[in-house]
Design goal:
Layout lengths: L4 E4 L2 E5 L5 H10 L10 E2 L2 E3 L13 E2 L2 H8 L10 E2 L4 H24 L2 E2 L7 E8 L2 E8 L4 H5 L5 H15 L6 H15 L8 H6 L1 H49 L2 H13 L5 H40 L9 H50 L2
Parallel strand pairs: 5-6
Antiparallel strand pairs: 1-2, 2-4, 3-4, 7-8, 8-9
Helix pairs in contact: 3-5, 5-8, 6-8, 8-10, 8-11, 9-10, 9-11, 10-11
Length: 376
């Protein structure tokens, strides 16, 4: 049906010869003509240039790329239907790709910008960037001639990259929405920092580079966010393990008060003891109390060693982290040093308590032996 449309004295004419009018009307409705009956029919020539018959008063057929570009370049949204009469299929695809890219990037910039141009500065998007207490202004114009548009070399990859950029900016249902937009504004400012005249044409030409730079910056942001989360987890694990070590040593230190109590009790019992059976009862009680304290101390030491192993296992999951690995490893080593220092201190105190128990056992045993030998 497109090959039946031609230009006649600035009028777009559709030749309806040998074609059923129902088929013609169906074709026109598919391309945005809500009321094809309003179009004037001169014999077999159907005049298409009647804005009132078309959606948004936009006639989607054009005699040249210049005419199409002039009609759509300042519109807020891309028209759903557009076709240049007489343009080859490959040229039609290439031009449509440029139009799609143009409107994708325009909607992206419109969402990102802080303000739009006014009557004195029309057709531009304005950005403000604050860095190191310096506020800079970036103005991106979206006006260009048709020849400038056609001169842009962009393939399917460039259009797909633009679609990814557009999707990243327009997605606003997650918590990282504003962060993505902030990263993209910084990427845009970096891309155009050396350009004297910032135009949408430059972004269209370097759209794949723009997407690559944005992707790299956003990955760094996400990785940094993950690194901070990991560091917090490591600190939390370290505090938890240190707390467990301190609880263990405090529990044993409380039980250590039984040692001087045992000495006092042994002294009190020794005074009235006169038979070998009295000495045997005291010795058995002393053996049991010494064994219980030293056994519990050894269990606590084993528990402390197990905590250190558990901490090492819990940090193994960060071995595959690429970004921020040095910072993470430094945090792990610092936490490991703290845990090791606390563990060694706890082991030393428990060892001292065990030695005191053995010393008391040896001392009281010698006293019992001496009393036994002196018994008549």
């Amino acid at each position: 049906m497109f090959d039946r449309i031609s230009l006649d004295d600035d009028q777009l004419i559709l030749d309806t010869r040998s074609v059923d009018m129902a088929e013609v009307f169906a074709f026109l409705k598919e391309h945005g003509c809500h009321n094809p009956e309003k179009l004037e029919l001169f014999g077999t020539d159907l005049c298409l240039t009647a804005p009132s018959a078309w959606d948004a008063s936009f006639v989607p057929f054009f005699a040249s790329t210049e005419a199409m570009w002039h009609a759509v370049r300042t519109r807020s949204k891309k028209p759903e239907h557009m076709h240049v009469i007489g343009l080859k299929e490959d040229q039609q695809v290439s031009f449509s790709r440029l139009i799609n890219l143009y409107f994708l990037l325009r909607e992206t910039l419109k969402t990102l910008c802080h303000s739009e141009g006014d009557d004195s500065q029309p057709h531009k998007y304005i950005f403000f960037n604050s860095k190191e207490s310096l506020l800079t202004k970036l103005e991106v114009s979206y006006l260009m001639t048709c020849s400038e548009l056609i001169a842009i070399d962009v393939g399917e990859k460039g259009l797909k990259d633009a679609q990814k950029i557009h999707a990243a900016v327009m997605a606003d249902e997650d918590v990282h929405c504003e962060e993505r937009r902030h990263v993209m504004r910084e990427t845009l400012a970096d891309l155009l920092k050396d350009e004297k005249e910032c135009n949408l044409r430059l972004i269209m030409e370097f759209v794949s580079k723009f997407y690559k730079k944005y992707n790299e910056r956003y990955k760094v942001y996400v990785s940094k966010f993950s690194v901070n989360k990991i560091l917090t987890e490591i600190e939390s694990d370290c505090v938890s393990f240190l707390g467990k070590v301190q609880d263990a040593i405090m529990t044993q230190q409380t039980k250590a008060f039984a040692v001087p109590g045992g000495i006092v009790a042994a002294g009190a019992i020794l005074k009235p003891a006169t038979t070998p059976w009295d000495y045997l009862v005291i010795l058995v009680g002393l053996v049991i109390s010494t064994w219980m304290i030293t056994s519990l101390n050894n269990n606590v030491v084993s528990h402390i060693d197990l905590l250190a192993e558990q901490f090492d296992r819990s940090t193994k999951k960060y071995d595959d982290i690429v970004v921020g690995v040095e910072e993470i490893q430094e945090k792990i080593e610092d936490s490991r040093r703290k845990l090791s220092s606390s563990s060694e201190s706890a082991k030393f105190k428990l060892g001292a308590l065990t030695r005191v128990c053995y010393l008391v056992f040896i001392l009281v045993s010698r006293i019992l032996l001496k009393r036994y030998l002196e018994t008549p």
